[in-house]
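User: Sequence in, structure out. Go.
Assistant: Echoing your sequence, followed by the structure tokens.
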Amino acid sequence: MILFVVDVFIRRIIDPPMLGQTYFYRWCGLLLLAVWFCSCSPTKKTFHPAQKYSAAALQEDYTLFQNILEERHPSLYWYSSKTYMDSVFDAGRKLITDSLTEQEFRKILMAVSSQIQCGHTTVEPSKSYSKYFQKNNPPINFPLSIKTWNDTAVVVASRLKNIPINSGDLIDSLNDTPVTAIIDTMFRFVVADGNNPVAKSQRISFDFGNLYALLYGTRFIRHLSFKDSTGQSHRFYFKPIAVKKDSLDVKPTSKTPKISRKEKLKQARSFEIKAAEGYAIMELNSFSEKLQLQSFLRRSFKELHKKGIPHLILDLRLNGGGRLSNANALLRYLTDHSYKLADSIYAITSKSAYSKYIEKDFWNKLIIKLGTQKRNGKLHYTHLEKQVFKPKKKYHFDGQVFLLSGGFTYSASTIVLNILKGQSNVQIVGEPSGGGAYGNTAMLIPDVTLPHSKVRFRLPLFRMVVNKNEALKGQGVPPDVFVGPSLEAIRRREDYKMKKAIELIKNAQHVQ
């Protein structure tokens, strides 16, 4: 009984998120606010991205990076064996032989982290590094938006003036490096559950310019080779652009316009009924706690019920996760059966020798200690493992559901796909999810800050095995109707996955 009461208290406070921070953290932070105000602030040193850190300092940071992962990460050896990870850690350490900039050091950590094959264990810049580039624009922005899949890189949009390069043109090389080699290199630095190639390709597409700058040290294209829509090859040479010394320190002349709260909500979740066509489109780009999703879902499904709409397109292509309770609220409007969110949820320890480097770790350890029970050497979140959820009765949607999925469908949104897959009125359309169908490592994910470089990495503390019977370990939830990227669709600038879902609806209506 005591454990149940503690569990209810903890779940009401933290409402375990798949990503982000918790209300529990914020509540506890208020208790320490007075101490914060009374503390003395040391004189801050001026940060510049070119500054270097000694090999000895970076070796200490690297040792902490390895020790903390080995102590707390519950899935360090899930996809990679201990012997293999030991060799990866050793190889990374041997690369630190001289002083390095933060960016150079971060590349080493990224390469090591990617071998864990956990999509939530990412390496992040220091806060000073991030603030610096928010205030100081890089001198040259990467001029191409690129979509990658397999070993293909296609132009989506271009800011190159006087160069006839168009959407759908195939990139052959950048600065004389074949694009296949560039993509292969990027794959080694990007994290994904089980090295899921769909997730990695999507992340590379989204952040191609920044990854290129990180790995190749420049945003400037000197040589560009590509093929146009007719198959004709083109090669262009660009004159170097003179950049004034210290131009990185010049503040931008224009400010980014502020987006209203209402507009932010609209970008994150939207709902539209096309009554004449007989379907509705719901777009959920996050399950974040800040999106008021519970009330949004209630209003939306109430309207669906009231107007008798028989078909729903649910777009989760950009949904990287968020609060598990929000994902669960959505599931209860759609599922036709009772279900559990996961077969097992556990951490490996509630103790740490490195708490001072881990964000709010006193509270992390307290949550684990009070909310779990030890079984088979693991600390299981037993109550949530056993809890069975039932479909909602009021405003439950019983029509046909078309779930749009892709490489950014991650974490909590992957759980939604996993539970709904195979239901008679549900079809998953698109590509496999970016998140692993078998499970992921998430729940509590504090930042760890390394003391010398101040580089941060995210440390997931719970392993969730969503479906212990899933044979596709390391792969995403497979779609029922595969719709992948194509040159023709990009050239036409069409939303090919949405187009396919609408086509399926029209076919169903025709049969009826």
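User: And one key feature?
Assistant: The mean pLDDT is 85.
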